[in-house]
Amino acid sequence: MKKAVDYTAVFNLIPKPALLLLPDAPAFTIICANEAYCKATSTSEKDLNGYSIFDAFPDSPEDLSQGAVSILQRSLLEVIATGENKYLQAHRYDIPVRGTDRFEIRYWNIENIPVKNASGEIEIIMHSVEDITELHLFREKYYVTQQALLQTELRFKNVFDYSATGIALVGLDGHWLDINQRICDITGYSREELLQKRFQDITHPDSLEADVENMNKLLRGEINQYRREKKYIHKNGHFIWILMNTSLVRNTSGKPLHFVTNLYDITEQKEAELKLQLSEQRFKGLIQDGSDLVAILDEAANYLYVSPTSITVLGTPPEEYVGKNAFDLIHPDDKAQVFTFFSQLGVNKRIYVTPFRFLHKNGAWRWLETVVTDLREDPAIQGIVANSRDITEKINVLNQLRISNERYGYVTSVTTDAIWDWDLINETLVWNEGYKKLFGYENGADTFNYDVWRNNIHPGERATVEQSLQKAFEDKNCTYWRSEYRYLCSDGHYAYVITKAAIVRDEQGKPIRTVGAMTDITQQKLNEATLKNLNTQLEITNKELAVSNEDLEQFAYSASHDLQEPLRMIINFMGMVEKKYNEQLDEKGKQYIHFAMDGALRMRQIIMDLLEYSRVGRLQEKKQFVAIEKIIEEIKILYRKEIEQKQATFQLHALPVLQTHKSPVLQIFQNLIGNALKYSKAGEPVLIEIGAHENGSEWIFFVADNGIGISPEFHEKIFILFQRLQRNEASGTGMGLAITKKIIERMGGKIWVKSEEGKGSTFYFTIKKEHN
Ligand code: ADP
């Protein structure tokens, strides 16, 4: 090997780190390393000189590429082969940390330069390096950041362009500054079209005001962003619902630049919401405000939900049901039947439960008609839906109808009347057996209809009856029709009938049905006729009787009047005989005259009584208030002498005041009290008891004494004219009680006696509270 020129000193001056290598491939022995190189590689010269470069700098086990040595090898070999400079850019070649087995990562720009002799042979290779580790690492980092930035930008661009959300930059005046594709899709405008417009141009007028207000708030810094639902007008003219999120972008000094807006098309969602709202409203209308009661039950019939209608239907708020069992509220008699239906739910999804009774809050039972639907599988319900309706009124009406139909059935079966039910709308006529019985139409009755009825009416009355019925039908207020006419029987004779009918009308007053009865009143008619005859007869007889009574009274009156005259003559002349011939008459003669006088006087009394009897009732005086007690007082004055003689006492019970004719009443009491004084027991003080009590429309009076009494066989007789029991009693004519009876009877009352011989008598009589 040729000794090289010692230019180490020169070489050391080169500021660039460098080695001088022998071209002794594959070793490439280091012959010189300058100071800069030693510093750059933290290696001392002694570790280098005389060593192969590859031994001095082996591959780092941490450099996973493991290519540092071989790349340098290749470069040096190429230098030898080509005789040209070779460069390695940013070549990683880790440096061993001397004294350790660690390496330091380093990047180098390497230049391998052949140094040739005069004959062109390579004598030395200068291996100069530049440590670019820091620069490289910085670049690398920069590159990564740069890449990341690019990536982000790209991503952002993608996001912006292909976002499912509309993104826009909007100028402070509302002009669209930039928009993504999605906004075009949402609004129907092209990008170019939109960039010519302001957001206000496509905003629905309803939404504009709030937008402007919010943007102003953003500009004033009162809010950072706002989010709202608004309406845009699509290019096609229909409106669309948008959810918008807008914020304001400012520059670093806080000056507003533009708005950033995100738009979501929520039209479908909005429509769905509206639909939901509608369906909820419908649900509310049906379930909450309807008249039906809706309940959701679990399998064991416990309530899970009850609609608020429970208050109106059952008087109970819905929350009171939840947790309770439906069967506990069903009428004991209906439970089994409802349970049978309920248990069919496994087989049928929907079951109609026949009406049953359910407990109302007030303790009453309500009839419910219910449809049960098994919706246990339905995720929205998860239960059994019971839909019930209160049909209590309907059931009541039906029951009443049934009862009244039964009653109708009973009545028509027992009555002898012909009962018919004529449906005027369907023109059907139903009649009972009575029709056949009544008119003898054994076989023909089945053909009974309006025409048959009409034709059977006596021709003389047919038109009148028909017109009357027609008139009743036409009068909207008329609900009752009645008519009497003659009706043809099967044997050809006419029966007198009376028809009474109820007319049923619809709301407009149109007759729709009539139910009536035909009664055979032939017998009644005959009876009436007979009665009428009898009455006429009676009237005639009465008139005759009145005339004869009148005659009789007239006769009695004049007879007694006429008889008075000769009687007076007898009395007068007997008186004169007694006076004038008193001296000549012996005792017997005087006695005869006395008898004659006495007889005459008694006869006068009889005639006077007769006269009075015939006058009873003739005198018509006005009615007045008559206090019976006062009457008794008057009578007591009249009989003062007798009362004293017989030591009579009166016992008066509460006596009424009557509105009546005074004289007859006075006469009654006078006669009865007179008799009580007259027919007393000898030597015993008289006790007279008078009282009265009410008996319906009349007063019953009694006058009782403690006198001699009357044997029962005479109780009737004593009221007959001239009937006297005590012949020896001189002071009676036997007419007092007859007169009394006549007076009482004329006032509409009656008189009777209760008495036994020797035990006193009680006379009873009645006076009507109202009488003529
Ligand atoms: P007379 O003028 O005889 O009293 P009345 O018609 O008053 O006639 O009475 C008929 C008869 O009834 C009397 O004669 C008397 O025998 C009997 N009689 C009437 N009142 C009483 C009386 N209070 N007690 C007993 N007998 C009586």
Descriptive report:
Helix content is 41%, strand content 26%. It contains 22 helices and 29 strands. The strands form 7 sheets. It has a 5-stranded antiparallel beta sheet with strand order 2-1-7-6-3. β15 and β16 form a beta hairpin. α19 packs across α21 (662-678) and α21 packs antiparallel against α22. The protein is rod-shaped, with a radius of gyration of 73 Å.
Rg for CA atoms: 73 Å
Helix-strand category: alpha+beta
Q: Strands across the major sheet, in which order?
A: 2-1-7-6-3
Q: What's the shape?
A: rod-shaped
* Cofactors and ligands: adenosine-5'-diphosphate
Number of helices: 22
> Poorly predicted ranges (pLDDT <50, ≥5 residues)?
none
Strand residues, percent: 25-35%
Assembly form of the protein: single chain
Please report the total strand number as a whole number: 29
Termini separation (Å)? 190 Å
Largest sheet: 5 strands, antiparallel
Average of pLDDT: 88
Give helix % range.
40-55%
